[in-house]
Amino acid sequence: QAQKVWAVQLSGGSIHAKDLPEVMRSLQGDRRAFVPLDTMSRVTRVEEHCRHANLGLWGWIFRLKHSVLALKLKRPDDQEDVLYLDKNADVGVSWRKAGPFERFSEAPREHHGFDAVEGTALQDVWDAAVSTPSFSEPQEVSNCQHFVRESLEEL
Fold this sequence. Notes:
By secondary structure, the chain is of the alpha+beta class. It is 25% helix and 28% strand. The protein has helices at 20-27, 56-61, 122-130, 133-136, 144-154; strands at 7-9, 34-36, 42-52, 65-74, 80-88, 92-96, 113-115. The strands form 2 sheets. The protein has a 5-stranded antiparallel beta sheet with strand order 6-5-4-3-7, covered by helices on one side. Strands 1-2 form a two-stranded antiparallel ribbon. Helix 3 (122-130) packs across helix 5 (144-154). The longest helix has 11 residues, at 144-154. It starts with 6 loop residues before the first strand and ends with a helix. The relative contact order is 0.19.
């Protein structure tokens, strides 16, 4: 079930919360671990980034790829950052930063990106992604490429 996105996790750990006060209680005062979206950066560009899927022999034989929706952000301090909206079989759709040693060989994927409308917030991107059929369909029906393509079309 899709709900309002209150915060984006920037460090390790796992927190399951339904509202902002519950998020803050779970953090036990570590406000650096999460960034509330209402004070977060603005989206400046949306792109599809791809890399080889790490699926063993079959992934290598069929040259399978993993795609994410990459959001280029401008923070209030004018620093730039990248945040990924990712769909995978393990956790469904989630926000994340790049993992250690994770490299996208196609970043951005050619002709799969655009500059965002000025003032676009992360919540706007989340609302568009949630409205796509692939957001709630199981991985066997809609994989990461379906999700990214539909989200780009919706945006």
